[in-house]
Amino acid sequence: MSLTRIGRRAVLTFGLPIVLLAIWWVASAGSTNPFWPSLQTILQAFPQTWTWDKVVQDVVPSLSRLGIGFALAVLLGIIGGTAIGLSPRLRALSEPVLEFFRAVPPPVLVPIIALFAGYTGSLGKIVTITLGCLWPILLNTVEGVRGLDPTLTDTARSYRLSAWRRFAFVILPGASPRIFTGARQALSIGVILMVISELFGANRGLGAAIVQFQRSFAIPQMWTGIILLGLIGVTLSAIFKAVENRTLAWYVGQRQMERGE
Amino acid sequence: MTSTSFAAPPRAVAAAAPRRRRNPRRYDALLGVIGVLGVLALSETLSRTGIVNPAFLPPVTEMYSTLFSLLGEHSFWVSLGETLRGWAVGLAVAMIIGIVAGVIIGSLPWLKAATHSTIEFLRPIPSVALIPLVVLLYGTKPQSALILVVYASVWQILVQVLYGVADVDPVARDTARSFHFGRLRIFRSVLWPTSLPYILTGFRLAAAVALILEITAELVIGVPGLGRDIGIAQSSGAVAETYALVIVVGLVGVAVNLLSRFAERRLLWWHPSVRSES
Question: Closest chain A residue to B257 measured between Cα atoms?
């Protein structure tokens, strides 16, 4: 790649974000509106607010709850989705029930789970995240398993591959593009649930901390929290994309070949 | 109503199954109904026998009788209306912004290249991060919910519209150009039909996301609507009412899904993906 092309790409990638940040910086400079502090104030408040202790105390527990809840949902979703996807009868039996559970907006799980376990510990929050993330993964796995190439599954069967090998080498890879689609939807739902599950009851955590700043009118600190949450969202989605690109490299290549690119 | 009266039909149907296999769609629908009844019966049994504490999970029959008494209350219909209005207004605003911005950005290659990184950065920012800000600005007014709903759903539509515009057949576009079609005519006869399927996919995704954020705003911030009612019912210990309202919200979600699928069928009747299904 020649230098001018690299330069061109850099301008295209970073140009607009820099312009927008500059506009924010200039427009908010010397702001006296308490709700819209200057960008300078916010950036100065950032390292003071999110010290190592604060990160360990509030950010780490939130992210680990998200991680555990999401991982459980992936596991349960793939197991349940494969079972339902392989059996037409089971699928017909469960379809309306699953459609209903998927349609329930996940945030209403919070008050329901609060009935059972209260909402002070981590358990209720993890259950909320798992249940919210489960349906998109489960339903997409069902579709992925249904859409498997019958030649592949029949071949696997006529070679008498064991059930476990069929699952690990034929079903799982074949359904993985759809599983990733579901997991991507689930991840954004998971982040929403991670935040709002901390807004109920007395809590620690990232979401709780941001709302605490807002209630005590620590506005620059509140803004740092919003920015941090944004950065977490962007980072998680970048990690997800990297994992997806690695895992599905064969699929992307195959599709490009089919399209004759 | 006991659980045995629910459990009886499956056996009878299973025996009759082979004869009905000639009409698989009806057979599947029947199995679906059995599945729903089975889940209702299971949860009724769990609650009645005390395996799950009825203070947490009331019998389904009780949930539904509460639901029916809610249907007679004026305040319930007001809340339902507020939720639906907030959802519809937010979705409509997001559709307009998403389609207009998507068509403009998508038709100008330099603009698309320049905005790509910004869109990819703003899109994954969770809408709930804005909750403290909108609370300060608007409190429990519907505007709070509107901002969250619009921010969350606009990306779903924008990204789909960008895919749609990129999918335009270059031969068709060049043909239209060499016939000296005006911009508006190119938009109407080339761009729009190509991107419509993508726009409707965006609409389907955005409709579901918009409902999630509308309910979140009601539940967390206290914007009037069904979400707020759920929060109130739960904190005042009206357990059956909490479940009844959750069931209503779930049914609203099902209706939203059906509506967007119906819209896809209706507007894309000419499209191969819909035609091949029927």
Answer: A103
